[in-house]
Amino acid sequence: MPNDSGKFKGQRHISKKGDMTLRTLRYLAGTSATRTKAWKPRYEKLLAKGKEKKQAIVAIARRIAITLYSVYKFNSMFDIKRIDKQL
After folding, report:
1. Is residue 47 very low, low, confident or very high in pLDDT (cuts 50, 70, 90)?
2. What is the spatial distance between Cα 26 and Cα 8, in angstroms, rounded to a whole number?
3. Other CB atoms closer than 10 Å to residue 47's CB: what's the count?
4. How far apart (Å, rounded) are the C-alpha atoms in residues 76 and 23?
5. Beta carbons of 56 and 47 less than 8 angstroms apart
6. d(Cα 34, Cα 23) in Å, to the nearest integer?
7. Would you say 43 and 31 are in contact if contact means Cβ atoms under 8 Å apart?
8. What does the alpha-carbon distance between residue 50 and residue 41 come to, in Å, rounded to a whole number?
């Protein structure tokens, strides 16, 4: 969640808006995903870019949500090779 004004770029923080249960489940999914072969390279890349662990987990959780929506919307199967191409 940005805190910007004009040219000033403020500190970012994780928003606490929205359904608490859904946020918790997304975060836990992101935490678990950092240990899988599909998502671990992306997590390590985020850490190498200087992100904090919690920021990287939230980014992974967001990417998982986007991937799930795409699988649902286009009625397709999850393909790990497509995730690898995005790195």
Report:
1. very high
2. 31
3. 14
4. 25
5. yes
6. 17
7. no
8. 15
